[in-house]
């Protein structure tokens, strides 16, 4: 276990906040037990990550029924692939969220979702993702910090990052939506995430 | 081809929807530890965005997941450790478990799987091959198959002479104008020291562009590379470059195949 998080992180304000604090840094330990087929460890892990997995998938897909199905797949995948997790490479939480995001984006890009694309683009025009994020962010110090860090990005960085992450748009689609060159979007995504990383104090 | 590094953000956001782009970037990650670390850090930052939108999951989900894991067999730990040489045997074995389609293009499939697995090992974060990713590999595989099966497909082959890197290796291009793509395959490429890499180049009248890095496995196989053949590609070449690749070739090609006379 690396010196990943030297400071105590506040929880997410959800029902499992005190358990999350107890398990912080313990999520990696749980995942190691899950890899050995430990059902009890998986149940604990479920309680710590299921809300985040479902929330993220729902954010990308928008459709509760599909999101439940995909979130279920993600959590089963966590069980199935736990042995492939390498603690030195990523925090357990990022590992889980990476699987969740990828699955959600894959679903968005699948053929059946493609027909809804115009619809999504239309919605995007009137939606302001950052404000939506801000709404749900007031609850805890960490989310407050996230809001502050998002605020520290330039508008183009913020839009590039959030359209891709929360809406599942590819960088090509983001470039089209924002009417900026591809190279610009690529750079803004990278610079934006680097700034987020540094601002959040992600320790790697 | 733009600097691969600039794709790190898009990659961490799952915002690269072009299979070939992503595969190239993963090839680059496999040889660029610094880039892999950067992607890991950016993925951590992105994950925080995900945490911010947590909501209470539907009530039935917990029971459904717990029931499902009772029926799912867990994967064993990855067999190969991260290192310069991917180990082909377990990869092929695993691949065969997951799909029956490999029989038709066994080497193609094993090669494609090897790229994916090598990148996964380097990344760690992404050390999971989801069904969707397998679908993507198959899509790349289908592109290869489409070129190879095209009625207008033509081939050109050559071998590496001399006594330097890659000696004795052979390379073949199969080009299909109707598909607008060419496929480069090679065999017998010797393993290079970690500080060097083979790099494939697409040579057209308006300049030379990288077509990706070639990473032979222990037996000298490299996965087939799909190259855009539009815009008057004249030749395809292979050079030996510093690890991570170069923006333009810095050494004489060890292999040069003439696409137009193919």
From TrEMBL, chain A:
<dbReference type="InterPro" id="IPR036388">
    <property type="entry name" value="WH-like_DNA-bd_sf"/>
</dbReference>
<feature type="domain" description="RNA polymerase sigma factor 70 region 4 type 2">
    <location>
        <begin position="144"/>
        <end position="195"/>
    </location>
</feature>
<dbReference type="Pfam" id="PF08281">
    <property type="entry name" value="Sigma70_r4_2"/>
</dbReference>
<dbReference type="InterPro" id="IPR039425">
    <property type="entry name" value="RNA_pol_sigma-70-like"/>
</dbReference>
<feature type="domain" description="RNA polymerase sigma-70 region 2">
    <location>
        <begin position="46"/>
        <end position="112"/>
    </location>
</feature>
<keyword id="KW-0804">Transcription</keyword>
<keyword id="KW-0731">Sigma factor</keyword>
<dbReference type="Pfam" id="PF04542">
    <property type="entry name" value="Sigma70_r2"/>
</dbReference>
<dbReference type="GO" id="GO:0003677">
    <property type="term" value="F:DNA binding"/>
</dbReference>
<dbReference type="InterPro" id="IPR014284">
    <property type="entry name" value="RNA_pol_sigma-70_dom"/>
</dbReference>
<dbReference type="GO" id="GO:0016987">
    <property type="term" value="F:sigma factor activity"/>
</dbReference>
<comment type="similarity">
    <text>Belongs to the sigma-70 factor family. ECF subfamily.</text>
</comment>
<keyword id="KW-0805">Transcription regulation</keyword>
<dbReference type="InterPro" id="IPR013249">
    <property type="entry name" value="RNA_pol_sigma70_r4_t2"/>
</dbReference>
<feature type="region of interest" description="Disordered">
    <location>
        <begin position="1"/>
        <end position="23"/>
    </location>
</feature>
<dbReference type="InterPro" id="IPR013325">
    <property type="entry name" value="RNA_pol_sigma_r2"/>
</dbReference>
<dbReference type="InterPro" id="IPR007627">
    <property type="entry name" value="RNA_pol_sigma70_r2"/>
</dbReference>
<dbReference type="InterPro" id="IPR013324">
    <property type="entry name" value="RNA_pol_sigma_r3/r4-like"/>
</dbReference>
<protein>
    <submittedName>
        <fullName>Sigma-70 family RNA polymerase sigma factor</fullName>
    </submittedName>
</protein>
<dbReference type="GO" id="GO:0006352">
    <property type="term" value="P:DNA-templated transcription initiation"/>
</dbReference>
Automatic annotation (TrEMBL), chain B:
<dbReference type="InterPro" id="IPR041916">
    <property type="entry name" value="Anti_sigma_zinc_sf"/>
</dbReference>
<keyword id="KW-0812">Transmembrane</keyword>
<dbReference type="InterPro" id="IPR051474">
    <property type="entry name" value="Anti-sigma-K/W_factor"/>
</dbReference>
<dbReference type="GO" id="GO:0006417">
    <property type="term" value="P:regulation of translation"/>
</dbReference>
<keyword id="KW-1133">Transmembrane helix</keyword>
<keyword id="KW-0472">Membrane</keyword>
<keyword id="KW-1003">Cell membrane</keyword>
<protein>
    <recommendedName>
        <fullName>Regulator of SigK</fullName>
    </recommendedName>
</protein>
<keyword id="KW-0805">Transcription regulation</keyword>
<dbReference type="Pfam" id="PF10099">
    <property type="entry name" value="RskA_C"/>
</dbReference>
<keyword id="KW-0804">Transcription</keyword>
<feature type="domain" description="Anti-sigma K factor RskA C-terminal">
    <location>
        <begin position="112"/>
        <end position="254"/>
    </location>
</feature>
<feature type="transmembrane region" description="Helical">
    <location>
        <begin position="108"/>
        <end position="128"/>
    </location>
</feature>
<dbReference type="InterPro" id="IPR018764">
    <property type="entry name" value="RskA_C"/>
</dbReference>
<dbReference type="GO" id="GO:0005886">
    <property type="term" value="C:plasma membrane"/>
</dbReference>
<feature type="region of interest" description="Disordered">
    <location>
        <begin position="77"/>
        <end position="100"/>
    </location>
</feature>
<dbReference type="GO" id="GO:0016989">
    <property type="term" value="F:sigma factor antagonist activity"/>
</dbReference>
């Amino acid at each position: 276990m690396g010196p990943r998080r030297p400071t105590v992180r506040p929880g997410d304000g959800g029902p499992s906040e005190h358990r999350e604090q107890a398990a912080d840094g313990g999520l990696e330990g749980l995942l190691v037990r899950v890899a050995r087929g430990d059902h009890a460890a998986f149940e604990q892990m479920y309680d710590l990550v299921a809300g985040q997995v479902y929330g993220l998938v729902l954010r990308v897909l928008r459709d509760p029924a599909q999101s439940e199905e995909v979130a279920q797949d993600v959590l089963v995948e966590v069980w199935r692939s736990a042995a492939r997790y390498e603690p030195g490479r990523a925090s357990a939480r990022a590992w889980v969220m990476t699987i969740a995001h990828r699955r959600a984006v894959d679903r968005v890009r699948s053929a059946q979702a493609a027909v809804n694309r115009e619809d999504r683009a239309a919605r995007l025009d009137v939606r302001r993702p950052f404000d939506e994020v801000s709404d749900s962010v007031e609850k805890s110090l960490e989310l407050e910090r996230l809001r502050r860090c998002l605020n520290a990005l330039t508008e183009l960085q913020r839009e590039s990052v959030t359209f891709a992450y929360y809406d599942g748009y590819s960088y090509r689609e983001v470039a089209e939506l924002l009417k900026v060159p591809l190279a610009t979007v690529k750079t803004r995504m990278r610079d934006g995430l680097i700034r987020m990383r540094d601002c959040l104090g992600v320790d790697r | 081809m733009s600097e691969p590094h600039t794709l790190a953000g898009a990659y961490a956001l799952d915002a690269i929807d072009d299979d070939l782009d992503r595969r190239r970037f993963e090839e680059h990650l496999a040889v660029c530890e610094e880039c892999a670390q950067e992607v890991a850090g950016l993925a951590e930052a992105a994950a925080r965005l995900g945490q911010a939108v947590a909501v209470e999951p539907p009530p039935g989900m917990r029971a459904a997941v717990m029931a499902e894991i009772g029926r799912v067999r867990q994967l064993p730990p990855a067999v190969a450790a991260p290192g310069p040489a991917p180990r082909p045997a377990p990869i092929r074995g695993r691949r065969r478990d997951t799909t029956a389609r490999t029989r038709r293009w066994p080497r193609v499939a094993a090669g494609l799987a090897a790229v994916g697995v090598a990148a996964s090992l380097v990344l760690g974060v992404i050390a999971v091959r989801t069904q969707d990713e397998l679908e993507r590999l198959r899509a790349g595989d289908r592109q290869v198959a489409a070129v190879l099966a095209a009625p207008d497909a033509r081939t050109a082959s050559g071998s590496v002479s001399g006594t330097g890197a890659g000696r004795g290796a052979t390379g073949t291009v199969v080009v299909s104008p109707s598909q607008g793509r060419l496929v480069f395959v090679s065999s017998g490429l010797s393993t290079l020291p970690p500080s060097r890499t083979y790099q494939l180049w697409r040579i057209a009248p308006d300049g030379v562009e990288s077509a990706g890095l070639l990473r032979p496995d222990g037996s000298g196989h490299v996965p087939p590379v799909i190259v855009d053949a539009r815009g008057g590609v004249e030749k395809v070449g292979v050079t030996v470059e510093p690890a991570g690749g170069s923006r333009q070739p810095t050494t004489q090609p060890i292999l040069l195949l003439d696409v137009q006379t193919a």
